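Page header: ASSEMBLY MODEL / two components / 223 residues total.
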Amino acid sequence: DSGVTQTPKHLITATGQRVTLRCSPRSGDLSVYWYQQSLDQGLQFLIQYYNGEERAKGNILERFSAQQFPDLHSELNLSSLELGDSALYFCASSASGSHYGYTFGSGTRLTVV
Amino acid sequence: GQNIDQPTEMTATEGAIVQINCTYQTSGFNGLFWYQQHAGEAPTFLSYNVLDGLEEKGRFSSFLSRSKGYSYLLLKELQMKDSASYLCAVRGYNTDKLIFGTGTRLQVFP
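Prediction written out in full:
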């Protein structure tokens, strides 16, 4: 157990629907990051939150949004889902300036049918 | 912006040594990381370099040359369980965000 908890592990939904992915960071980590990994693709950075505030944004679609709550857990909302949104979504957390980079959660596998 | 290049695939034999290269172009640099990722699983941290030179950790070593924008991960005494993707990632200035390369899929054969 890495200490980063992601739920659910698997999600199957239809096109046009909306889903919410949840992440609880490792104890003490203030930063949460969301990444998308499509089949045979690298990890694509979506967004970072630090202590409740948006810190950095990547190529995140307008249909996607995220937030970090006062207890530091984060949610990634994906709406108007398309087949191409099927991917592994990873959450990671880190302490500032860590020499270990991130600790990743086990991911949520989203399948859009 | 940042650009990170790695070979897509490599193969090697059990017990051998393999070197996985990574080149990067970045507007700022504050560390290079290597992660291992088995298929369908989360990436796990392997190594971190911020200064030039070699960092050794058991069977794995990582090298960095900042002037050349170049790193490699060296895996010795390969085992079947080393079959995985190896991800190179760079951290820029004043940020904790990591930008990842597309990864190198390593297959180890008996």
